[in-house]
Amino acid sequence: MKYQSQKVAKPYFIGALTLFFGQIVFGLIAGFQYLDGSFLFPALPFDVVRMSHTNLLIVWLLMSFMGAAYYIVPEEAQTELYSPRLALITFWVFLTAAGLTILSYLFIPYAHLAALTGNAALPTMGRGYLEQPLPTKVGIVLVALSLLFNVTMTLIKGRKTTINWILVGSLWGLALLFLPAFYFPEDTVKASFAWWWVVHGWVEGDWELILGALLGFILIKMTGVDREIVEKWLYIIVAMTLISGIIGIGHHYYYTGAPSYWIWLGSIFSILEPIPFMLLIAFSFKMLMQRRREHPNKAAMLWALGTPIMAFLGAGVWGLMITLAPAQYYLHGTNFTAAHGHLAFFGAYVMISLSIISYAMPLLRGRLANSATAQRWEITGFWVMVLSMLVIALALTGAGIVTVILQRAADHPMSFMQVEGKARVFFWVREAAGLSFFAGLLIYLRSFFITGDYEYASEMKQALAR
Amino acid sequence: MQQVFTKAMARNIFLGGSVFFLALYVALSIDTWHRIPDRDHADKLTPAVLQGKYIFDSNNCIGCHTVNGEGAYFAPELGNVYKRRGPAFIKAWIQAQPTGIPGRRQMPNFHLTQTQLDDLVLYLQWLSNIDTNNWPPNIQG
Predict the structure, then answer these.
(1) Less packed terminus of chain B by CB within 10 Å, N or C?
(2) pLDDT tens for each residue of A429-462
(3) CA angle A34, A446, A392 (to 5 degrees)
(4) Do A257 and B131 make contact, defined as CB atoms within 8 angstroms?
């Protein structure tokens, strides 16, 4: 850590991990409701649990991206953050708003919440991921404006690097792409079409740029590879992201009422969408090979290498399986999509967040790397979470295939609830893997409570003794 | 190699490619916008249908169900439920919730009035006539 103001990243990272914990708890409840439909009903109906699970995910990812920006932008710009105070105030506003929103989900029936918050005047509620009441959506915009002001002013007064351009530019994109959340056409087909501007625009466009910038920063710092090489790679990766991803949005338009030409456009460009993820893998491993130093933070390196691989699997491979129109005809709206959603969100955005946290937190706590013991806990947490998420994705894939065989492609299709009964074993596996993921999370979080610096001398001795 | 393909070239591909495909997307979206009203019979979006849609959204129906495959996978598809079940069944079903059968997935009772139920069913009827390129594959959704 080179600049004092980078310290504001710390509360963002801690807040993000706290909300991550909450997200997983709701995930476990929702998963269990697939097995026992009356679990916690009527106190917590499934939709409330699911919306808490997904909204916490989005908020904590945004929080970690913001923390990452407050950490990276000053270091890249070689100057203090424009206003650390504003960043700190923004953090508390954001955390409070997020907490109040989740509490309102849990304690106020959704229709009442809508009535209380002026949804009738400007309807925005009742869409996936964008369930937040109007005041929360306005709050998100204000928080984003504060972030943009702060990092843009920092960028302007300091050194302008490619990483900063891509990072700050994609944060602007993130904020702009949220604005369609306020636009809810009365025509449901148009509403769905526009909803994807936010959802696809974020996860299959803009956020990949954020991911690239964060990974680029970590790799420059950890491998000591020449900045010029990293930045050229980054431009190629983000170019492929947008060239494939912008028209690739068509894979959401096949069966929702949009014109048929999207079937061709979406399928063709979707085939290209895994390319940026393949490039990310090639990039990170090439940088590792060309490294000029051995960074003692092995855990951070593991996260940074794991991210592109898992992102490629979840977003690239699982994504590709459902984006081609003939396959999607049968897979659309099944748990296959949920498998892709889980693996892609985890592999790309959860893992890049945990990468930057893994790299930056030791520095924010005044050491280059954590002690070997702490790193062993963190690395164990990495493997348990990664493997558990793979099992979750495989179980949901199994459930999706059951739907295809018994409901979608059957001569005598069964009803939805009959099929769900047949897929029950997969929901058990998913829940068991969810519990194992939770255990991995606890192991991971435990690593933060093991204090102490990385000690070269003792590590060396131990290594020689082995 | 380093000299043949420079960082500036990579940046130009990024900027040029993004602008080009964004412009293409905007053009296609404008075209789509003009075609949607025909495909979903937007002329039949009466005040009652829109009222039904408001009830649908403000009770977070897609928090469990899907509409044309979008939403949650906890409860059945509603894009074609009007054709699958018919208006009388749908109204009776909504009013009978929750079933309270232990272990079975539970749907809350939303305490809808008769008029609200009528509007909601009109919205579901409107949904069932959208041209979705023949999706879902069969009536079970």
Answers:
(1) N
(2) 999 999 999 999 999 999 999 988 888 877 777 7
(3) 25
(4) yes
Do B36 and A407 count as a contact with CB atoms less than 8 A apart?
no
Domain spans, chain A: 1-112+127-160
- State the best of B19, B58, B81 to mutate against chain A, taking most chain A CBs within 10 Å: B58
- Per residue in A162-198, pLDDT (tens digit) is 999 999 999 999 999 999 999 999 999 999 999 999 9
DSSP A241-302: HHHHHHHHGGGGSSSSSS-THHHHHHHHHHHHTHHHHHHHHHHHHHHHHT-SS--S-HHHHH
pTM of the predicted model as reported, rounded to 2 decimal places? 0.97
Q: Which of A239, A257, A333 sits opposite B73 (nearest CB)?
A: A333
B3 pLDDT band (50/70/90 cuts)? low
Q: How many helices (H) and strands (E) does chain A have?
A: 20, 0
CATH class of the region A1-112+127-160: mainly alpha
Nearest-Cα distance to chain B for A60, in Å, is: 20
How remote is the C-alpha of A354 from its chain's centroid? 10
Which of B9, B54, B57, B110 has the most A C-beta neighbours within 10 Å, making it the best mutation to test the interface with A? B57
ipTM: 0.97
